[in-house]
Design a protein that fits this description.
2 copies of one chain form a homodimer. Chain A is α+β, with helices and mostly antiparallel strands and 119 residues long. Chain A has a single domain, classed as Winged helix-like DNA-binding domain superfamily/Winged helix DNA-binding domain (Arc Repressor Mutant, subunit A). Chain A has 6 helices and 5 strands; from the N terminus they run βααβααββααβ. Chain A has a 3-stranded antiparallel β-sheet. Chains A and B meet through strand 1, helix 1, helix 2, helix 6 and strand 5 of A and strand 1, helix 1, helix 2, helix 6 and strand 5 of B. Strand 1 of chain A pairs parallel with strand 5 of chain B. Chain A binds a DNA duplex (30 and 30 nucleotides) through helix 3 and helix 4. Chains A, B: Keywords: DNA-binding, Transcription, Transcription regulation. Chains A, B: This is Helix-turn-helix transcriptional regulator. Chains A, B: Pfam families: HxlR. Chains A, B: GO terms for molecular function: DNA binding.
Chain lengths: 119, 119
DNA sequence: TAACATAGGCACGAAAAAGTACCTATAGAA
DNA sequence: TTCTATAGGTACTTTTTCGTGCCTATGTTA
C-alpha cells in the first residue's frame, strides 16, 4: 500500500515525532555518541525503545550506526549529512518551544530540563 | 502531578503533534474557518476527532473559537496572535519535509497532497 | 408535520505506541 | 569458574490514541 501524506508537516513529524526521538536527536546534534551514553542521557528510556528508535532514525537516513568490532561491543551513532540539516529545524522548534513555555507558564509552573542550553 | 519536559522540542511536538493537528493547523493558517469547512478539508477526520483537537488547540492558546448565535449554529476558528507565531515554524517544517521527500523518494514513490502549495 | 443543516456529546471498541521482564553473545578480570 | 561490561533481541502486557455508532438541540424550509 502506497503512503500518501496530507502535507509536508506530517513528513517531519513522522520522522522526529513520538515520545523519544526529539530527546535522542537532541543529544545526537552534539556529535557521535555511544549507545550506553545515550541511554544514560535520555532519562527513563529503556533498552528496547532506544534501539527501536535508533533503528528507525537509521532507516530514515538521519543517522549512521558504526560498529567497532571489539569486545565488549562498541557502537556509535552519528548524524548523517542529511541528518545535520535537521539541526536548523530543531533550533527553530527549540526557540518556539522555549518562548511558548514562557507565554503559557510565566511563573515557571512547567519546566524544561536543559531549557537554557543552546540548540 | 507536575509536568517536566526534557527539552523544548517536546513542547512544540505536544502542541502540534498527533495524527490531525498538523493538517488542521495547515488550513487554519489560511484564515478563519468554520467547523464544517474544516471537516471537509481535513480528509478523513471524524466529527469527534475534529472537535477534540480543536478544543486542545484552543486550550493551548493557539486558536480562538467564535460562536455566532444563530440557527443552524455557526462556529468559526481563528489563529490567535500567538498562534500566528506558529506560521514560521510550520513553514520551516514544510520546507524540510518537502526536501526530505525528494531526498528519500526521488522517484515520487511517496506523495504529499498540496505538496506544492505555499506555507 | 417532517426533514434538513450545523455543531457537538458520549459510550464503547480497535489499533498503535510504549513498557516489562527476561534472554543472547563474548573477551577479560577477579 | 564466575562475574562484568556492552549492545541487542523477543514475547507479552499496559497505556494512549484513535475510530464507530448513535444521540441532542433548534430555527427554517418543503
Amino acid at each position: 500500500m502506497q503512503k500518501q501524506y496530507n502535507n509536508r508537516i506530517e513528513v517531519v513529524l513522522e520522522v522526529i515525532g513520538g515520545k523519544w526521538k526529539a530527546h535522542i536527536l537532541y543529544h545526537l546534534t552534539r556529535g557521535p555518541i555511544r549507545t550506553g551514553e545515550l541511554k544514560r542521557l535520555v532519562t527513563g528510556i529503556t533498552q528496547k525503545m532506544l534501539t527501536e528508535q535508533l533503528k528507525e532514525l537509521e532507516q530514515d537516513g538521519l543517522i549512521v550506526r558504526k560498529v567497532y568490532n571489539q569486545v565488549p561491543p562498541k557502537v556509535e551513532y552519528t548524524l548523517t549529512e542529511y541528518g545535520e540539516s535537521l539541526k536548523e529545524v530543531l533550533k527553530v522548534l527549540c526557540d518556539w518551544g522555549g518562548d511558548y513555555i514562557k507565554f503559557r507558564y510565566p511563573n515557571g509552573e512547567v519546566t524544561v530540563r536543559n531549557g537554557n542550553e543552546e540548540l
